[in-house]
Structures are given as structure tokens and as C-alpha cells.
TrEMBL record:
This is Iron complex outermembrane receptor protein. GO terms for biological process: siderophore transmembrane transport. The keyword Transmembrane applies. InterPro entries: Beta-barrel_TonB, Beta-barrel_TonB_sf, Plug_dom, Plug_dom_sf, TonB-dep_rcpt-like. It comes from Sphingobacterium alimentarium. GO terms for molecular function: siderophore uptake transmembrane transporter activity. Keywords: Cell outer membrane, Membrane, Receptor, Signal, TonB box, Transmembrane, Transmembrane beta strand, Transport. Belongs to the TonB-dependent receptor family. It holds the Pfam family TonB_dep_Rec_b-barrel. Its main location: membrane. It is found in: Cell outer membrane.
Length: 689
């Protein structure tokens, strides 16, 4: 048994993969079946017990590579928004109610290295889309293997971990609102045992709205050393220097009169531009991954990783400085017996992360730090012990069971003001998170699956110590049970695949965001959330022998969310039965890729999002919208050389719709709306060697 078969990806595509036939990543692609891999082992497409999907590098390249938003949204059950350039937020199988500025409820990994830190935060916006080989998504709570999460798991394969081919790419793009993007990618196979990759990118944008400029530099490198037939040592390193302005939310009247404006002054609070509201983030993430095949049955993986973040945020009400340090390990031992009569596998492991957070807040004097307001230190520790077993009772029937033990603690100390000096601890008692799943394959083209799993998500550091500069030691962890059924069918010739999932997640102690009068935020437990949903994914590929049209690839991702509050009391109001804030009832995303002769491709992306409740009382809704994007690419070889080039052009919001993306929820003073850009364009070129 080869080592790289036993321990590889979290999951490979449950749908389709694109095989590159020309120098450009987005032209003349062909649909091919792929080997499906869950976290520990290879499985056939129909045997997979999870609701899962992979976003390939080709899918990312087919969209605009300025942002991951469109590519990620091609997965049903997942929703990514970009409030302004560089300001991401993301939700999986759960509301955006906990994710006003980032990622909550979800664990994110770079191979075996967690990008989600000990405090529960994930800086997804630091990544360069061009340096990603694949984004693997497993939907639904899986605290049994990946620590505290209630939405799901995202595992990213960086460029260089998936391939050892020699290549050199250089890309330049220019677009509306002062957009400039430059990318350099190098991959080299030094010898049969060692290869490396290096990626560099720079992105600049003035933004559509006032006070929404972006500057972002990323440097990423991967190294693979197969030092003998059984062992591999890998290194991942990322440095990002990013700053982006935050324009703030507008009232409906302001949004209708001038959607380009930043949040203006209101009462005693100055405006966003006046205060130079900006995020400055310098982060380094690095880690080593060692994989070893001990014998035919046993293999072992261990990773050591760490990160350092220098974070600075002049905000409306204060000027915040954060120093964040994290260090941890993830390791597991895997056994597979290879028995053809009763295949059995078993894994046991742990993940432990320690974080140190030094947070200081000052008055914000028009973008300059003034008098001190509050200084706090918060040290966070997380540990996850896990075990998993899988038995193939028959070639068609798979049973999988796993159990995780999750513990989390926060030690805090307030050092300023001196009169408020205090120390304490917040301990979230150890929690057991089981998962039981099975799949049954009726024949070569149809299968069903089912699972029961427990979700568990502790408050993040950003929620315990939010922008109101106080430490909330009364927040409880979210938890609940998820019940799911799935059905998958594919055509015998692999021309199309349909995947349907229905689920119900009953969550207790759900965490919601509330905005104070001065614009600062705080978090409370909202009681119960009843999350019922259905997801439908369709992938199809059709090939012609025409002289001009070569193939058509069509994908659909449909999500229906019947999300309702249970017993949720806020003051004198009870919001029981209301729609959960920030969750659309349904979304529909379609992509249509035409491959023509002469290495020309044309991609169309359509996203329909229904109305979105913006407050817990369901008194204010964001309008539904239809977003259409398009991109055309042409690739060609340079005569009598090993070089080739690609030219591309694209447009976003072709219908020129006026819509708000990344709305502020439960916003004080009615400042809910963040206007998205109207119709805009970009062009670019890419050189290949």
C-alpha cells in the first residue's frame, strides 16, 4: 500500500475534476472521473459517507482570481460574502450571524496545518487564490475528528503539495476601481526526492465605495522531501501583509441616495473615513508535516505549526492593537488491514493548540492612537482527542464511527485601567462529539448515505473580548445534534452526477451578535436554533466533435434554508419562530463553461440570493438579487518555443444590479447596508513556461 494513497487529502472531488489540455487553466477542459478520497483513505465516489465537494484550481481560475468568493459559492450549503475588497466572511451549514467580519463555526486547514487559530479565528482573506490547488469542503458538524466546529471543515491544498511538475507562471490583471493584480508562481522538481513551489502576489484596489481601498502582498512556499521509500517531510510557509479600509454600514436612506459613501458621522461618533477605519494585518504561518508508512498496515502523521499576527485596527470608537501568537501540533496513527473479506481501518490522534493574545485599545484621534482605553491579555488552549473506525461489511455497505473529546480554556488578565485590574479563567468543560455514518451502494450508479453527528463550537476570542473592550465570561459554547440523509446518482458514462442532501441541525446556546449605540459589538447566547435544510448539486459535461464547439460543462448548486429561532428572549422580546438573521431562504448558483476551438473558453456564473433578514425581529430585509459574472479566455503557444500565453477579460455584475453584500446585522441606527460594486470589468494576461 503506497503511503500517499493511505494519507492524502481530506476529500477529493465528489463531483468532477478538470484535466488541463492546454497552457491555460480555463480553456479546453475535459470532465474526468476522479478517485475520491476522504481524510484517511481512498473511496469510490458513491461510498462517501459525507456531504462533500472540492473546488478545483480550474474552478477558481474560471472565475475572477481577485477573490475566492464566486468559486467558493459554487458549493451548495456554503456562503461567502465580501463586504468590501479584502473583507471576507463565510458560513457553512449555519448562519452568518456569528461571522460579521470573518469565519466562525468552521475549522480551516492548510493540509495538516490549522489556519483556524487557538482563539477560533481564521484569516481566510490572507490567502492568494492563485496559490491554491484545491479547496476541499466537508459540510456539517464534525467535531469528532477536527475539534470544535458546528458548520463543517474546509481543507486547502496549497500549490506544490499536489504536483511536482516544473512550471513558471506570471500573471498581470487590471480592472475597474483602480484594480491591479500581479502573480508569480514557480514550481521545480529538483530531483526524484525533492520539489518545491513559490508563489507571490500583489493586489491593489481603490474600491467602489469611499474608504474601501485594498493593498495585499502574499508570499507562499511549499517544500516536499521524500527522504526514503516510506517517509516524507513537507513544509508550508505563508507571509501576508495586508491592509484594507472598512467603509462601514449605511442606513437605507443613505444607501439609496449615495451607495458609494462611507459611513458618515452620526451623533457623537465620527465617520469611517474621518477615523481612517482600516485593518492592518501582517501574519506569518508556518509548519512541518511528517508522514511515515511504518509497515503495510500502520502509518503515522505529525505536524508542528505556529503563527504570528501583528494586527492593527483604527475603528470608529477606538484604535486597537493585537499581537497574536499560536503554536500547536496535530498527529494521528492509522491502521488499515487490507483484508478483502472485511476491510477494516482505525485511526487515533490528537490536535492541541495554544494561543497568546495581547490586546490594547486606545482612543482613535482621526486615525491616530490617543489615550489608552483598555489592555487585556488572553491565553487560549484547545485540545481535541479523536478516534475513528470504518468497516466495509460488504463491497456495497460502509459503516463509519468516530468520537472526539474537545476541551477549551481561556485565561485572561486586565492590566489597564488599573482600577479594573482583574484575572480569571473561562473553562469550557470537556465535550464528547460522536459521529456515526453509513453509505449503501445499490449498483454502479446510485447510493444513499446517512449520518448523525454532534456539533460543538466554543466562543472565539473575538466574541469573548469584542469591540466593546469588555471580557464576557458568561458566553456558553454552541452545541447540538445534526441528522442527515443523502442520495447520489451518476450516469454510466460519467456525463452527469446529482447529489442531494437533507439535514436538520438542532442547536442550543447559539451565539448572536448585538450592536451597541456607539457602534461597538457584543455577543450573547440566543437559546435555540432549528436549522433545516436541503442541498442539491448537479454536475454535467457534454462533449462534441464540432469544428468550433468542443464541450459544455454545467454545474448547479441549490440550497434551501429553513432556519428558525427557538426560544430566544432579548429584553422583553421573544423571537421564537423568526427567521434566523442573515440567512437567505434559498440560493441558486449556476456555472456554464463553453470550450471552443483554438483554445477559447467562455465562463458564465449566475448567483440568485433570496431576501435576507437583517435583524432578529425580521423587521428589515435585504432585497433579493441576481449576480451574473462572465469571463472569456484565449490561450496560444509562442512559435518555436516552450512558452505560451493566455489573454482573458471578464465582467462582474453584468446586470448592473444595486445590491448590498455583507450586510451589517442587528445594526444600531439602521446602518445595515454595504453597497456592492455596480457593473465592472477586468482584463489580463498570463505567461506560462
Amino acid at each position: 500500500m503506497k503511503f500517499n494513497t493511505a494519507i492524502t487529502l481530506l476529500l477529493a472531488s465528489t463531483t468532477t475534476a478538470y484535466a488541463q489540455n492546454t497552457a491555460d487553466d480555463t480553456t479546453q477542459v475535459q470532465l474526468q472521473p476522479v478517485e475520491v478520497k476522504q481524510y484517511f483513505t481512498s473511496q469510490s465516489l458513491l461510498k462517501l459517507t459525507s456531504s462533500a465537494q472540492t473546488v478545483s484550481a480550474q474552478t477558481i481560475q474560471a472565475q475572477s482570481t481577485i477573490s475566492l468568493t464566486s468559486a467558493i459559492n459554487t458549493v451548495s450549503g456554503i456562503r461567502m460574502e465580501e463586504r468590501s475588497p479584502g473583507s471576507y466572511r463565510l458560513a457553512m451549514r449555519g448562519s452568518l450571524i456569528r461571522s460579521p467580519f470573518g469565519v466562525r463555526n468552521t475549522k480551516v486547514y492548510m493540509d495538516e496545518i490549522p489556519l483556524t487559530d487557538a482563539g477560533g479565528n481564521t484569516y481566510f482573506n490572507l490567502l492568494d487564490p492563485n496559490a491554491i490547488a484545491a479547496v476541499q469542503v466537508i459540510k456539517g458538524p464534525d467535531g469528532s475528528l477536527f475539534g470544535a466546529n458546528s458548520g463543517g471543515v474546509i481543507r486547502i491544498t496549497p500549490d506544490g503539495f499536489d504536483s511536482n511538475a516544473n512550471r513558471l507562471n506570471f500573471q498581470l490583471a487590471d480592472g475597474s476601481f483602480g484594480l491591479i493584480q500581479e502573480n508569480l508562481g514557480i514550481s521545480r522538481k529538483v530531483n526524484d526526492k525533492y520539489h518545491f513551489a513559490f508563489n507571490q502576489s500583489y493586489t491593489k484596489s481603490d474600491g467602489y465605495r469611499e474608504n474601501s481601498a485594498l493593498n495585499k502582498l502574499t508570499l507562499q512556499t511549499t517544500h516536499n522531501w521524500r527522504y526514503n521509500n516510506y517517509g516524507t517531510l513537507k513544509f508550508y510557509g505563508l507571509y501576508s501583509d495586508m491592509d484594507y479600509q472598512t467603509p462601514g454600514g449605511l442606513t437605507l436612506k443613505q444607501y439609496e441616495e449615495n451607495p458609494k459613501m462611507a459611513r458618515p458621522a452620526a451623533g457623537p461618533n465620527p465617520g469611517a473615513a474621518e477615523q481612517n477605519a482600516t485593518i492592518y494585518n501582517k501574519t506569518f504561518i508556518g509548519g512541518l508535516i511528517h508522514e511515515y508508512q511504518l509497515n503495510a498496515q500502520f502509518s503515522h502523521v505529525i505536524s508542528l505549526f505556529g503563527s504570528y499576527t501583528d494586527f492593527e485596527n483604527p475603528f470608529i470608537t477606538n484604535y486597537e492593537f493585537r499581537k497574536e501568537k499560536n503554536f500547536g501540533t496535530r498527529t494521528f496513527l492509522s491502521y488499515q488491514n487490507g483484508n478483502t473479506k472485511l476491510p477494516l481501518q482505525f485511526q487515533v490522534g490528537l490536535e492541541a493548540i495554544k494561543g497568546w493574545n495581547d490586546i490594547k485599545n486606545f482612543d482613535n484621534e482621526r486615525g491616530v492612537a490617543g489615550d489608552p482605553q483598555a489592555f487585556d491579555k488572553l491565553d487560549n488552549s484547545q485540545i481535541n482527542l479523536f478516534a475513528r473506525t470504518q468497516v466495509d461489511f460488504t463491497p456495497d455497505w460502509v459503516l463509519e464511527a468516530s468520537l472526539g473529546y474537545n476541551a477549551n480554556a481561556i485565561d485572561y488578565a486586565t492590566t489597564f485601567p488599573a482600577e479594573n485590574s482583574t484575572e480569571g479563567s473561562i473553562n469550557f468543560k470537556g465535550n464528547l462529539s460522536p459521529r456515526l455514518a453509513t453509505s449503501y451502494q445499490f449498483n454502479n450508479w446510485m447510493a444513499v448515505r446517512g449520518s448523525i453527528s454532534r456539533g460543538y463550537s466554543t466562543p472565539t476570542i473575538a466574541e469573548v473580548r469584542s469591540s466593546d473592550n469588555t471580557i464576557n465570561n458568561s458566553l456558553l459554547a454552541e452545541s447540538g445534534m445534526n441528522y442527515e440523509l443523502g442520495y447520489k446518482i451518476k450516469s454510466p458514462n460519467q456525463n452527469w452526477i446529482v447529489d442531494l442532501s437533507i439535514y436538520q441541525y438542532l442547536m442550543d446556546n447559539s451565539i448572536v451578535r448585538q450592536i451597541n449605540e456607539n457602534g461597538s459589538e457584543s455577543y450573547v447566547n440566543a437559546g435555540e436554533m432549528n436549522q433545516k435544510g436541503a442541498e442539491l448539486s448537479v454536475w454535467s459535461y457534454w462533449k462534441w466533435n464540432s469544428n468550433w464547439l468542443k464541450s459544455i460543462t454545467f454545474n448547479t448548486a441549490f440550497s434551501y434554508n429553513h432556519y428558525r429561532f427557538g426560544n430566544y428572549q432579548s429584553g422583553e422580546q421573544n423571537f421564537k419562530g423568526n427567521k434566523i438573521t442573515s440567512v437567505p431562504d434559498w440560493t441558486l448558483v449556476n456555472t456554464l463553461l463553453f470550450s471552443f476551438a483554438h483554445n477559447i473558453s467562455f465562463n458564465i456564473y449566475h448567483n440568485h440570493t433570496s431576501t435576507i433578514p437583517l435583524d432578529d425581529a425580521n423587521a428589515v430585509f435585504a432585497d433579493a438579487y441576481d449576480l451574473i459574472q462572465a469571463k472569456v479566455s484565449w490561450s496560444n503557444k509562442i512559435s518555436n518555443s516552450k512558452y505560451s500565453y493566455s489573454l482573458f477579460a471578464g465582467s462582474d455584475n453584468l446586470l448592473n444590479q444595486k445590491y448590498s453584500l455583507g450586510n451589517d446585522i442587528n445594526a444600531f441606527g439602521g446602518r445595515y447596508f454595504n453597497a456592492a460594486a455596480p457593473r465592472n470589468y477586468y482584463i489580463g494576461m498570463k505567461l506560462h513556461m
